[in-house]
Amino acid sequence: MASTADFRTGFTFELDGGIWSIMDFQHVKMGRGGAICRTKLRNLKTGRVLEKTFRSGEKVNDVMVMRHKMQFLYRSEDVFVFMDNESFEQMEIAANLVDEAEKYMKEGDTVDVLIVQSEPVSLELPTSVELTITQTDPGLKGDTASGGGKPATLETGAVVTVPLFLSEGEKIRVDTRTGAYIERVKS
To answer: Topology of domain 128-184, per CATH?
Structure first.
């Protein structure tokens, strides 16, 4: 058991039959009455985001989450196959758990697989990844970085808005949290 005093970003606990991770929290002392803790939670299995307020000192069941570095091998219909980098064991993860992460993963990439009670519940990608542009309108000479943007399809199928001067075959860095273009990668 843990109390609201133990809350921090990334803390995981059980609530209403689901496993939740704290994305953001704030302890607030009310003028009259006790303190409260406002939280923004994410369900590790469904990805659903919820805002919930707890009374100070309220107890929750904390959950132990194991992080395993695993390499993405391939996708087979509705499962993704990963390999543990230490034991070389392969693990199949259902496509619904991978969800949005699929847009930024390519074969051979290493990700953190979050495991609760010997069962994978979610993936954590690095904050940024390098991907190659496979399709976009041609860049024009004289276009600048601040002159707007155009859609570009990446090697994983994700579509991001990039500056006008970029063209097919160039590598870019993309933020996996927001899906936004960060910078061009020099080869």
So the answer is: OB fold (Dihydrolipoamide Acetyltransferase, E2P) (2.40.50)
